[in-house]
Amino acid sequence: MTPPGLARTSGFYFFLFFAFGAHLPFWPIWLKDRGLTETEIGTYTAAAIALRVAMGFAVPLAADRAGAPRRALALLALLTSLAFLAHLAAGTPGGLLLTTLLAAAAVAGIAPIADALSLRAAAQGGFAYSTARSAGSAAFLIANILCGLAIARFGSNAALWWIVLSLLPCVWLGLTHPGGAGAPLPRPRLADAAALLRHPVVLLTMLAGASIQGSHAVLYTYGSIHWRAAGIGDGTIGALWAFSVLLEVLLMFFAGRRLIRRLTPAGAMALAGAAGVLRWSLMAADPAAIWLWPLQALHALTFTAAYLGAVAMVERIAPASLGATAQGLVGATAVGVAMAGGGLAAAAAYPAWGAGAYWIAAAFSLTGLGAAALLLRLKV
């Protein structure tokens, strides 16, 4: 029998990441087909990331203070869908920048609010949060494949409509999210939110999670480019990415809860940091193509263990009334800053160092490992 709340919680993540799975790989193609240059695309993307960093804290805080996370989730999903639809009416670069920023502002708060609600739903329904979240990773992988095929047949507008339509079910699923059932939570004060920024465990969790996730910036920015330059075919490159996401899904679905219970959240982040040091140090050696498969398999640890550990740590230390705010602070804001910093560092290092730029990623992971080790010593 399916635990109460699991289907709708999983459904929300499925449709949200069904949209993300089209946006991440294919949105730059849509912008380029609208006449933007590579420089403009990079500038718009950077502006969107900067706005998401700020709004990823401010929007969940507003939702917590209003005591209406489900309504906020539904509204943000609707506004994000409409913002992407508005791109069709933006006929100038300035108009496209405006709609890009509107979409970034709307989408920034969705994941933190959804995570807080989903953790509460999991506790109430007796299911593993990681099981529900794995539906999102699976949807991301499916969308990568199917949206690519749709673009090949119908053009890049298929990506826009894919995003717009995928977000619409999130409106209803957000409004009826099982994590919002039960007695309402007390509304936090601004002083309570400010206290999070002074909490040493919160700060260490931010540093650990952001550093380990930020270590992926080199791979996300230059991985495919470097592999193609090394003579690896596009089909193999796509398979390498799909393979890493598949293992992410499997770990979340089958072992996510046990991983956190056995290692503790801090232990899971420490494992991710150690795996990252190993993964990126070996990537810096520019290994032959055959070795890329086991190195991509480590994504199940460098991403998934770090993500689940950070989410579980926040749930453990933050008051329930500030659940979305804390998830946004650790996830959207801290990780956003780290990803931006890692991307800038990669852009500076890769032209000169090539695969040696992965030493930057190894340094990020080592930093995260150190922060996680301190959390382990605190026995949180």
UniProtKB/TrEMBL annotation:
<feature type="transmembrane region" description="Helical">
    <location>
        <begin position="96"/>
        <end position="114"/>
    </location>
</feature>
<feature type="transmembrane region" description="Helical">
    <location>
        <begin position="356"/>
        <end position="376"/>
    </location>
</feature>
<keyword id="KW-1003">Cell membrane</keyword>
<protein>
    <submittedName>
        <fullName>MFS transporter</fullName>
    </submittedName>
</protein>
<feature type="transmembrane region" description="Helical">
    <location>
        <begin position="291"/>
        <end position="314"/>
    </location>
</feature>
<dbReference type="InterPro" id="IPR024989">
    <property type="entry name" value="MFS_assoc_dom"/>
</dbReference>
<feature type="domain" description="Major facilitator superfamily associated">
    <location>
        <begin position="8"/>
        <end position="353"/>
    </location>
</feature>
<dbReference type="GO" id="GO:0015528">
    <property type="term" value="F:lactose:proton symporter activity"/>
</dbReference>
<feature type="transmembrane region" description="Helical">
    <location>
        <begin position="160"/>
        <end position="180"/>
    </location>
</feature>
<keyword id="KW-0472">Membrane</keyword>
<feature type="transmembrane region" description="Helical">
    <location>
        <begin position="235"/>
        <end position="254"/>
    </location>
</feature>
<keyword id="KW-0997">Cell inner membrane</keyword>
<feature type="transmembrane region" description="Helical">
    <location>
        <begin position="201"/>
        <end position="223"/>
    </location>
</feature>
<keyword id="KW-0813">Transport</keyword>
<feature type="transmembrane region" description="Helical">
    <location>
        <begin position="42"/>
        <end position="63"/>
    </location>
</feature>
<dbReference type="InterPro" id="IPR026032">
    <property type="entry name" value="HcaT-like"/>
</dbReference>
<feature type="transmembrane region" description="Helical">
    <location>
        <begin position="12"/>
        <end position="30"/>
    </location>
</feature>
<dbReference type="GO" id="GO:0030395">
    <property type="term" value="F:lactose binding"/>
</dbReference>
<dbReference type="GO" id="GO:0005886">
    <property type="term" value="C:plasma membrane"/>
</dbReference>
<dbReference type="InterPro" id="IPR036259">
    <property type="entry name" value="MFS_trans_sf"/>
</dbReference>
<keyword id="KW-0812">Transmembrane</keyword>
<feature type="transmembrane region" description="Helical">
    <location>
        <begin position="135"/>
        <end position="154"/>
    </location>
</feature>
<dbReference type="Pfam" id="PF12832">
    <property type="entry name" value="MFS_1_like"/>
</dbReference>
<feature type="transmembrane region" description="Helical">
    <location>
        <begin position="72"/>
        <end position="90"/>
    </location>
</feature>
<keyword id="KW-1133">Transmembrane helix</keyword>
<feature type="transmembrane region" description="Helical">
    <location>
        <begin position="326"/>
        <end position="350"/>
    </location>
</feature>
<feature type="transmembrane region" description="Helical">
    <location>
        <begin position="266"/>
        <end position="285"/>
    </location>
</feature>
